[in-house]
Amino acid sequence: MLALPHVRGLFQRWADTILYDICPITGCEDTGLFGCFCCHDSVISFCNICKAGEGQGLSMSIIKSLFANIKPSVNVGVLYNIGSTLGKFLEKCGLLTVYLPQMTFATVVFHLYVHNWPCQLQFNPQHNNGWGLNDGEGLQSASVVEEGGSDVA
Description:
Layout: H1 4-22, E1 32-37, E2 43-49, H2 56-68, E3 76-79, H3 83-93, E4 103-106, H4 109-112, H5 117-123, H6 138-147
Parallel strand pairs: 3-4
Antiparallel strand pairs: 1-2
């Protein structure tokens, strides 16, 4: 809990570096990055979410791309700061329905504490089967490495 402001600062600097080094557009505002990592925290892909409300269409494109490149029998854990609503959204709108049975949704640990208690339990990867020790810190680690520092636990 004490490291949270530090993590936010690292993430923001990393996001700013990626955005402005790759796409130096004046007035371009980022609301976040959606990263796709394997269970070993290696980056598979990133999606720059630059709309208010963290437009779910961009995160869906990464999920769809991932499923296009893996075996049909593979189960995928979606660890996302709005993981508590993304599954319901996909189901309600009839999107990616062919992949929904293979997906499990959770909310990243450093974002989870802003949710109410039942949501924390339902979507916390540490309280659900199949997540192992994954807790969403892969993006934090990637941001530290990008900054040139050493990895922090």
